[in-house]
Design a protein that fits this description.
About 40% of the residues are buried. The protein is built from 18 helices and 13 strands. By secondary structure, the protein is an alpha/beta fold. The longest helix is centred in the last third of the chain and has 36 residues. It is about 50% helix and about 10% strand. Helix 6 packs across helix 7 and helix 12 packs across helix 17.
Length: about 500
């Protein structure tokens, strides 16, 4: 992709100027990344014409009501205090990626087709434990429906599709280019439409072809589908591939996080004291990217793709790619990240924990498996047994089973090393003027990872678990009690071990 060089800095944001007067469609706006994208566009590109959010009815709640609930999220508080009128630029269209024609009415289709210039396609099923059918229907067929809608947009300048840098896990080096999917995506769509669940489940492992889960597979299919579709349609598409998206580093709030997928769930389990072991290579880079860096990268991609497509029709023929990833040399290793997180959990513990946070990461899988049996499952069965005795409902074995499933899904990524090339991502930001470098910052060279992880943990306490800083004194008392219990347990184990050794020597 040709990168357009910015003119000399004049204190004016060229990116904000580009988005001024533009009408934008966002799918997946209610998700973690979608919320940050909406907030950032409204705050930093406030002269845009309108944002259309595709929102479905959920649990009987209509999209218009969901919009009211949506903007009650804490990340919009500062924006609404300074510029409450900005919400007049946000319009909700009732739709569903799983429905024919995205569930849109004829009037809404015509409105979007005539007005929208930029599309951010963020909607996706991001769970790692799903069978093939829901993944293909949401991530592959949903993308096809969006492309069909985009084809009707006469003024379309950029379509930013959100994929993942793990879409080609079989490739140790991921370049910023197209890769063929393991199978023809249109063939897989037909299979999903015609085969029953049992037949699909049986054939899924063969279809994955070494990919870790149906999520990665569906994203590989989606990328291939876009490239095949665009051979004749020539839409101005750019595919962005963020790595593991984590809490915000600066915007909209330091440490803001939503959901318990990936590292966040691991952090909560470790802080609760229920995760004592993890299979991980501590030397590999923790391939994460703070959500605000990823969103700024997406906005930059929309800007550059739009500028190119509006200035030269000959360059719009190919699908472009941008890996939204941080260079390995700028990242902490998994070992450093986990140890830093443990240190800050002792400073900002949780108000409720089952045991003192501890344990360690294991390079060897069988060592890890041994620890899981003795430090995860045996204590869980022991506690659940006493809960039954006292007439209480057991729960810990069930919790440990869910944790084991989550660890298996995550540990695939912590025991492998990838090289995600990000030359285009770096070049995008290098051509910005000083104003845009500050407004749409994607650099991480000066990141203090200690402060970031500390804010991450505080954000997890506040925004996910609902524990304010006022709970910290009590949480530290709980941690102190658990520390004493853990110490007493260790002393008892050592005493028992010495008694066994002493008895063996006596018998000899």
């Amino acid at each position: 992709m040709e990168i357009l060089k910015s003119d000399a800095d004049s204190g004016v944001s060229e990116i904000a100027n580009y988005y001024a007067g533009k009408t934008i469609l966002i799918t997946g706006a209610t998700g973690f990344m979608g919320k940050v994208l909406v907030e950032k566009l409204l705050r930093s590109c406030s002269d845009l014409e309108a944002i259309y959010m595709l929102i479905r009815s959920k649990k009987g709640v209509e999209p218009s009501v969901r919009k009211e609930q949506y903007f009650k999220c804490v990340i919009f508080s500062k924006l609404l205090e300074t510029n409450p009128e900005i919400l007049q630029k946000v319009r909700v269209v009732k739709g569903d990626v799983l429905e024919p024609n995205l569930g849109l009415s004829t009037n809404d289709i015509n409105t979007l087709a005539s007005k929208v210039q930029i599309v951010f396609h963020c909607a996706a099923n991001v769970r790692f434990d799903q069978p093939l059918r829901p993944m293909v229907n949401m991530n592959v067929v949903g993308t096809l429906k969006l492309l069909q809608l985009a084809e009707k947009m006469g003024n379309l300048e950029a379509l930013v599709h959100v994929s993942t840098s793990y879409c080609q896990c079989n490739e140790r080096v991921l370049e910023e280019r197209a890769y063929p999917a393991p199978q023809n995506p249109f063939t897989i769509i037909e299979m999903v439409e015609t085969m029953d669940d049992a037949a699909l489940a049986e054939i899924t492992p063969k279809l994955l072809n070494g990919l870790p889960n149906t999520y990665a597979y569906s994203k590989a299919l989606s990328e291939d589908l876009i490239c095949r579709y665009n051979i004749n349609k020539k839409l101005p598409v750019i595919i962005t591939r963020p790595s593991i998206v984590t809490a915000a580093i600066h915007e909209p709030l330091p440490g803001w996080i939503e959901g318990v997928n990936g590292p966040t769930g691991l952090m909560i389990g470790a802080a609760r004291g229920v995760i004592r072991s993890m299979h991980c290579n501590p030397d590999y880079a923790s391939t994460v990217i703070p959500v605000d860096k990823a969103i700024n990268g997406m906005i930059l991609c929309g800007y550059q793709r739009g500028k190119i497509s509006s200035s030269s029709s000959s360059i719009t023929k190919n699908v472009e790619f941008c890996n939204l990833c941080i260079s390995s040399k700028a990242l902490m290793s998994w070992g450093e990240s986990i140890e830093t997180g443990r240190r800050f959990f002792y400073e900002t513990p949780l108000s409720f924990a089952l045991w003192y946070p501890g344990g360690s990461i294991k390079r060897n899988y069988y060592h890890h498996l041994f620890c899981v049996i003795f430090f995860h499952y045996l204590p869980a069965y022991f506690i659940d047994f006493w809960l039954l005795i006292f007439g209480r409902k057991p729960f810990l074995v069930h919790v440990q089973r869910k944790i084991s499933t989550g660890l298996k899904l995550l540990q695939y990524y912590t025991t492998k090393d990838w090289d995600f090339r990000n030359e285009r991502f770096q070049e995008l930001s290098s051509k910005l003027n000083e104003t845009d470098e500050q407004l749409f910052d994607t650099s991480v060279s000066q990141v203090n990872w200690d402060i970031y992880i500390s804010n991450y943990i505080r954000g997890m306490r506040t925004y996910i678990l609902g524990e304010s800083d006022d709970t910290l004194p009590y949480a530290k008392i709980v941690l102190r009690r658990l520390y004493i219990l853990d110490w007493l347990k260790s002393v008892k184990v050592r005493i028992n071990k010495n008694l066994i050794i002493s008895n063996e020597e006596t018998l000899r």
